[in-house]
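Our preliminary data section would be incomplete without showing what the modeling component actually yields. Below, a chain of 185 amino acids is followed by its predicted structure, encoded as tokens that our downstream tools consume directly.
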Amino acid sequence: MKLNLGCGNKLLKGYINLDKFNYYKCDVTHDLEKFPYPFKNDSVNEILLSHVLEHIGQQPDTFINIIKELYRICTNNALIIINVPHPRHEDFLSDPTHVRPITVLGLSLFDQKLNRDWQKIGAANSPLGLIHDVNFNIEKYEYLLDENIVSKRNIGELNDQELEKMMLYNNNVIKQININLRAIK
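Predicted structure:
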């Protein structure tokens, strides 16, 4: 089973399209901040969350419960595709319905192998995967650059070293983060 959670008007064939509002005639109407989700344990092979996670889970307990529900319904090795605006881009900052920044490091806190590695070296990273008995591995991630930055890079106004520094310290450099998670059970 493949889910398109928070689908809005992006109804996809081959997916069960779920949204909080049935305005676009989705397959399932359900609020992702209400638990449990209407799916059986270990029943989902793929989940798409495209521009959804930044809208839900403002309270830490709610966000943790969202992660736990995703884990509960995923099969072993299920893929979760997450696309979110970068938290330092105007696309994230200007939308009052964006309540939670999503980052690669933030999601890696749910990786039990990394949790154990961090514990061994005394890192301060919260071992959320171990604490909440969930285990997601970040398979890959990519940063999509803002169009203005791409233009500057294409005409040679910006080299790789300058870009890396800008990515760390400036707003409106990275437009979107795409993250693929794997559920490990």
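Helices lie at 60-73, 90-93, 104-108, 112-121, 128-132, 147-154, 160-169. Strands lie at 2-5, 16-19, 28-29, 44-50, 74-85, 136-145, 174-183. Preliminary results of this kind motivate Aim 1 of the renewal.
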